[in-house]
Amino acid sequence: MNETVRPTFLNLPEDKQARIIEAALTEFADKGYQQASLNTIVAASGIAKGSLYQYFTDKSGIFLYVFDFAIAVVRRLLVQVKDSTQEEDFFTRLERSLLAGLDFIRQYPKIYGIYLKILFDQQVPQRQELLQRVRQYAANYLHSLLRQGLARGELRPDLPAASAVFLLDALLDRFLQAASVPAFDVVLDLEQANPEALRQRVQELMDILRRGLAGN
Amino acid sequence: MNETVRPTFLNLPEDKQARIIEAALTEFADKGYQQASLNTIVAASGIAKGSLYQYFTDKSGIFLYVFDFAIAVVRRLLVQVKDSTQEEDFFTRLERSLLAGLDFIRQYPKIYGIYLKILFDQQVPQRQELLQRVRQYAANYLHSLLRQGLARGELRPDLPAASAVFLLDALLDRFLQAASVPAFDVVLDLEQANPEALRQRVQELMDILRRGLAGN
Amino acid sequence: MNETVRPTFLNLPEDKQARIIEAALTEFADKGYQQASLNTIVAASGIAKGSLYQYFTDKSGIFLYVFDFAIAVVRRLLVQVKDSTQEEDFFTRLERSLLAGLDFIRQYPKIYGIYLKILFDQQVPQRQELLQRVRQYAANYLHSLLRQGLARGELRPDLPAASAVFLLDALLDRFLQAASVPAFDVVLDLEQANPEALRQRVQELMDILRRGLAGN
Amino acid sequence: MNETVRPTFLNLPEDKQARIIEAALTEFADKGYQQASLNTIVAASGIAKGSLYQYFTDKSGIFLYVFDFAIAVVRRLLVQVKDSTQEEDFFTRLERSLLAGLDFIRQYPKIYGIYLKILFDQQVPQRQELLQRVRQYAANYLHSLLRQGLARGELRPDLPAASAVFLLDALLDRFLQAASVPAFDVVLDLEQANPEALRQRVQELMDILRRGLAGN
DNA sequence: AATGAATGAGAATTCATTCAT
DNA sequence: GATGAATGAATTCTCATTCAT
Predict the structure, then answer these.
(1) Tens-place pLDDT, residues A5-43
(2) Pick from B173, B202, B191: which is nearest to B95 by CA?
(3) Are B138 and B100 in contact (CB under 8 A)?
(4) Is residue B45 in some structural domain?
(5) Smallest CA–C1' separation from D36: which nucleotide?
(6) B46: in domain
């Protein structure tokens, strides 16, 4: 947000900025970092090759800016879900979060795609840090839900919090992956599932969790 | 297995084959598919550039051959774990499988590395298929364990099998990732954990699962 | 002096002019002509990219203006040395000139640096002419000293003037180079020399010259 | 000579090697290091762009190889002059060395050109070291001549050797420069001089030196 | 007069693949 | 069967210059 983007870019008309971010997002989501080509980005956003370097310091500058942009979008969503489910019980909030996540990756597939890329592309600049930021954020979110659930007596008091958060994070993350990467969807068949069937899958999972975490 | 590798390669002395596979494995595990350089592979295995094309059709041919090789190693391991735990109860078998996985990625980090690469590198040839093969295999393995557990009454009879397998697969996969990718280890701190602490984490997770899946 | 700089520049407040000249001098002294970047110059002088083209015709225009500026500084110095040593004998004047040169390159390293750049950078615009101007000026200066020395009988009458001037010019020029380019200082070790040792070196050289040129 | 050039290059047919060295020498002599374009070199030597990187590690690899090549040529010349003038007296040897130098830069103007480039192009890789190597070599050569001259009583015994070598080096170096860079030739007019006039110039300089260094 | 966004040619370097020996 | 030289398109990045505001 600081040394990667140049003032020049921020002075651009908003629609031009949007076109460039969109093009970069698409390319990085598609190819990952190293394999993404600046040629493709400039072609798609209709600007000259040199202009990109008036806007950003270098390739990694573009990437990091786009990443920050994407993170901001996700954050807004999660804050909103959390706030709007204040009154619900723990498992309902979990379910709502999961469904919100599903909506999100359908609405912003490229943002989710860029996250998937960062996951395992060792060449991504500052990858470990970016990745940790994302996972930490998710863990904190779940932790916060968990604490409130415990306080309200919706979960058994002897629940080991760290392990529970780990399990929840693993499950939710994989669920979203399965919904967007067919190869991960070898069990639940989410792709084909109608909303009804999907809702039932979610219920089954919530039921297992309820037994495991609440004790009833 | 057929059009990617040439008979020339299979006629090579075994140690030469091994050197080449080792070099390719290292490079692909390190860089992923597109980013891997054939130059590095020929340099590391001490053969001529042109020879590679006597042995394999092209870059993707080498990759697919190496992948098959890696899969075979994994398969042997899982078969062995399954057989040697025939007599144990479901949750013990699960635990043993997890610990065997941990051992494996410590012993063969490159093979696990190549799996991580395939996970999200869209450029990998036939990626969807390779990935599906891996996940399907894991799902089948868990399903088989589950069926035996049900038959022995170690799990509650009304357990929705698909959802349970999905949960188990997600948990185990993520646990191994956390053990080898620091950025995934934001909750359990496996890196720092001594064997005792690690064992306790595993117990906690198994306990949650037991409640969720067995009903007691 | 006429087609390279625009009136716009000369109308600028003096301190702004100075800032720009300083920035350009620094960059050209540092990088030579072709390698110098206008970006660096505008950044250092805090003006807009486009403004540079309001002030000068193009890159070479800036360079030539800065060169003229530098020459004027040198000229002022030599005139002053010459005038202030009117009464001294030839070899004393020579020595004083050399020491003044040493002082100069320590005080204005950038001006000397720009001269060194011009020396052998074929890309410098009008290089031959600029270089010739400098060397011609130095030769004239030495010639003038020589004539006065001859007139006063401080030098042998049969001395071939051109060859003598050539020798003196070569010696003085190289001495200054040795004092500022370590690689040229393989013999006298001027870098390490204390003022006393340096003075002795100068005396030794003057002594050789005296024998060679005066005949006693 | 070691990590800059690849075996591939040395395996090339000699005429191809020669073509490439010639092209590189020409380009570097013309433009200096940074400003030299590999495009020009490959075009002039009729090879593909990628081939250059089969032969050398990178741009600086090419440059350093060409420099080593040039140095070897110079060395051969100086050794030969020194050996073939074993019997002559000091000033004759000096004169012969100077004339041999003149011949050399006429026969190999590009090699001399590359030396001139290194002189002041700050971007040249390992410039200080290369430059020092050249100047040190010249200084050693002159020192050796001087010692022999002293031993034979051809020079005055109280001559300060370092200063004398410095003077000789400065004079010879500048003489060669004047002969090849018109801008340095403001005094002696070597360009226009017929062999006779040139020889006379040399005599005049030698005469001054004789008085300065021998004392008679 | 001043600005600064836009441009595009050109730079060095990498790499999978081919093919004559 | 083995070799390794040759290729050229593609990569990221730089920079002097122009021009609308």
Answers:
(1) 999 999 999 999 999 999 999 999 988 898 899 999 999
(2) B202
(3) no
(4) no
(5) E11
(6) no
Tokens of D51: 């081939």
What pLDDT, in 10s, does the model give residues B2-31?
478 898 999 999 999 999 999 999 999 888
Tens digit of pLDDT for each residue in D125-142? Answer: 888 889 888 889 999 999
B2 part of a folded domain? no
- Residue A92, domain CATH: 1.10.357.10
pLDDT for residue C216: 59
> Considering only CA atoms, which of D33, D5, D21, D193 is closest in space to residue D126?
D33
Number of domains in chain B: 1
- Answer yes or no: is C44 CB < 7 A from strand F: no
- Chains D and C touch, contact meaning at least 3 pairs of CB atoms under 8 angstroms apart: yes
Choose among B209, B139, B148: nearest CA to A188.
B139
Confidence category of residue D1, pLDDT binned at 50, 70, 90: very low
Is D24 inside any structural domain?
Answer: no
Interface size, chain C vs chain D, as Cβ–Cβ contacts under 8 Å: 137
Q: For residue C89, report the phi and psi dihedrals to the nearest 5 degrees.
A: -85, 165
Beta-carbon contacts of residue C33 (< 8 Å; ≥ 6 apart): C59, C60, C63, C117, C118, C121, C123, C124, C125
Calpha distance C27→C33 (Å, rounded): 9
Q: What is the span of the domain harbouring residue D161?
A: 67-213
- pLDDT number for residue D191: 80
Q: How crowded is the C-beta side of B174, counted as CA atoms within 13 Å? A: 27
Judge if the beta carbon of A49 is closer than 7 A to nucleic acid strand E. Answer: yes
Instruction: Give the tens place of pLDDT for each residue, C24-63.
Output: 999 998 888 888 899 999 999 999 999 999 999 999 999 9
**Nucleotide with the nearest C1' to D60 CA:** E12
